[in-house]
Design goal:
The chain is α/β, with parallel strands linked by helices and 301 residues long. The protein has 10 helices and 8 strands. It has a domain of 208 residues: Alpha-Beta Barrel (TIM Barrel), CATH 3.20.20.140.
Length: 301
């Protein structure tokens, strides 16, 4: 089994005492691919400040990959080398736009250095409206330009955290496959951060992947336990079969909040996989745990 997780925020945790990889944010039983996201919320900060932050985060990512011996995934060749040889690996992503514009020098610099996944907004910014904003104006003019620039470069756009109108605006202006790196199903848990069935249909039809999120509020409206991930999986299996679904656990991005049965003391991935193997055939668990994400990346890198 090869484990792939499309979203974690562990770059924010790196300091003198904590490295990029912890006891709980990667698998200890299986080789893994972890998407490490540089999180840059708007919070009224300037473009320049956010650009500096995202470049600093990339430097942290690159240093830690070198120190830990993680294979950096930048293309199909590096991906196949890691998966064929059972080597653990990392992929750099941006969450929240990073203060980047379509013509930013930093965007092209980061692309050349390995940026392959990008979300436009965590909260509303100069690119798009975020999911929590009551006034949903969708993508801005600059957001449309960014969508087209990402398509030119081959950067995959992540729709998690986008408002509903931003989602559909993006679909109109970005012709390539899209992903929701860490979002669950709104029909199962009616949170605005979760996907509607129509959104999921678009993602899957385009060949994208949806990453299951462990944040309790996105799993269940009445307090969550580890088993509350099962209804979201069953919902996906009912509508799409066992393709187009993966992990996007949002580790280190949940303010330490996880469903009952998950603790930051041992591998969260291994605990979830252990539970899933009690509910589904191993072939299905293999696809959800990593194969679907790997297959997606082989088609877009």
């Amino acid at each position: 089994m090869y484990v792939a997780d499309m979203h974690c925020d562990s770059i924010m945790k790196v300091n003198a005492d904590n490295g990029l990889v912890s006891e709980y944010n990667t698998s200890k039983k299986y080789p893994f691919l972890q998407f490490f996201a540089a999180f840059t919320p708007f919070n009224s900060r300037t473009l320049e400040i956010r650009r500096r932050e995202v470049m600093k985060d990339f430097d942290i990512y690159a240093y830690e990959c070198e120190r830990l011996g993680l294979n950096k995934i930048e293309d199909v060749r590096s991906l196949c080398y890691a998966t064929d040889n059972g080597l653990s690996s990392a992929l750099f992503a941006i969450e929240g736009g990073g203060g980047l514009l379509a013509d930013s020098d930093e965007l092209f610099t980061l692309y050349k250095a390995g940026l392959r996944i990008m979300s436009f907004a965590w909260d509303t910014n100069e690119l798009a409206t975020g999911a929590y904003d009551e006034c949903d104006e969708g993508l801005t003019r600059e957001g449309v330009r960014m969508a087209k620039r990402c398509a030119e470069l081959g950067i995959t756009v992540d729709v998690s955290h986008l408002s509903d109108k931003s989602f559909y605006d993006l679909c109109e202006n970005y012709p390539l496959p899209i992903i929701a790196t860490h979002s669950n199903y709104r029909d199962v848990c009616s949170h605005k951060r979760n996907l509607t069935l129509d959104m999921a249909k678009i993602i899957v039809a385009r060949g994208g992947v949806i990453g299951l999120n462990l944040y309790p509020d996105f799993l269940s409206s009445g307090g969550a336990c580890i088993e509350d991930i099962i209804p979201h999986i069953d919902y996906h299996l009912e509508h799409f079969g066992d393709t187009g679904l993966g992990f996007g656990f949002d580790i280190d991005g949940t303010d330490g909040k996880y469903p009952k049965g998950i603790e930051q003391k041992a591998s969260i991935h291994d605990r979830v996989i252990e539970m899933l193997l009690k509910h589904y055939p191993e072939s299905t668990v293999r696809k959800i745990a990593g194969e679907n994400v790997i297959d997606f990346l082989k088609g877009v890198l």
